[in-house]
Amino acid sequence: MYLGIDDTDSREGMCTTYVGLVSILNLIEDGYYIIGYPRLVRLNPNIPWKTRGNGAVAIRFGRGAGERIKIGTYKGEDIYAYSREKKGSPRFRLEEFADHISGLFVVEDENTNPGIVFSEKKLREFLYWRAVRSVVELEEVETLLINSKAEYLKFKLGRGIIGAAASIAWRARRKTYEVLTYSRESDRYVSHESAIALDTLFPTTFDNYDYQNEYLAIKPNSHTPVLFGIRGTVPDDLLKAVETVESSPYEAFLIYETNQASDDHLVRKKIRDVRPYESVILRGRVLSKPRRIPGGHVIFKIGDSTGSIECAAYEPTKQFRNVVNSLVPGDTVEVYGGVRGDPLTVNLEKIFIEHAPPYRLKIANPRCPVCGRRMESIGRNRGYRCRRCGTRAGESEAEYAVVVRNIEGFHEVPVIARRHLSRPLKLMELRKQ
Ligand code: ATP
Question: With contact defined as beta carbons under 8 Å apart, do 207 and 424 qualify?
């Protein structure tokens, strides 16, 4: 049996993963077993009405069998899941269960529209792909749930059933894990040094610390009960890693299986086919020299055989803007990012620079071969003339430097600007080995 939960929090507080923890504790208390790791499923990162990271939670539960797996602790007691679900689970009453958790929903925020979905079987996978890559209508999901004999509860607009259903539909083809610690206290210390140490102690973890920007990535900045979260590819390493972080006390931790760092949101496309709110991979030629606009954003244009589109490395992407700034027209690139705005603009997460050959940069006008003075330009691409003796020279006689950039290959935004779904290069490289 599956439960999906979404849209329970606001920017002022709470977190759907905490509602997930409380749900698990309640299910266990009601005599159910948790099956497998709970799931934190990130959906379309370009949805305008998301609170933060567009994450929904799915929990499988029922009668447990097979291996017992530690998935967390609560007030010092271990929380376990089972590797398999046995037939014949006790009957589940959604309304009764909802009474246990709905007190946590932050319903006074107009953007918070919680939804809970209960389904005896997994929902069809296409719903996940639609919800991670495009915009899904509430009515469409309701019809699908009714046809799948799933039950659902909507609070206010109930938009949360979209994410809740999509999280049940996720098949975990490319997955990572995150251990989240929770505290409701105001004392929220997490040590930088112990987060930095994770990189060497546990190489299967990633995005712990941003060295370039001295940013502690395991600690959220927003109002949330999450004290810190460590991401990794091996759940047993996360169980050990969480013990090594020095922080204020926390009441619980929980390991989620997630589609974070999967790149599932990205679709390879031709420029003509790009639509707003999608995330795309586009291959093209740089058409315009990158320009810096107020606010520190860097913008350039690429084109393919079907059209052209703007690409942006926004200010929060920090040092990543330097490599983008060194592109010149004619370079070939593959850009990765979400599409927003009017005109449509790709908000860069990664770039693969396929071909960026050395180019000649004019550094001075030629010297007059007769009198030795610097000549002056007659006009753009029209050559030079000596002011004193009238001698003329062509464009190619100016003094040039050869600029070698060494920028071919992959570049990504720094950890501080990383999107949950974006696959870090570290993981792309691990896969190649
Ligand atoms: P929370 O931690 O509460 O989940 P969040 O940043 O994940 O915060 P939500 O508050 O859940 O954002 O808001 C996202 C809303 O968008 C949810 O109601 C969810 O059902 C809905 N949603 C998610 N993906 C899509 C999609 N592809 N199309 C339409 N709506 C979506």
Answer: yes
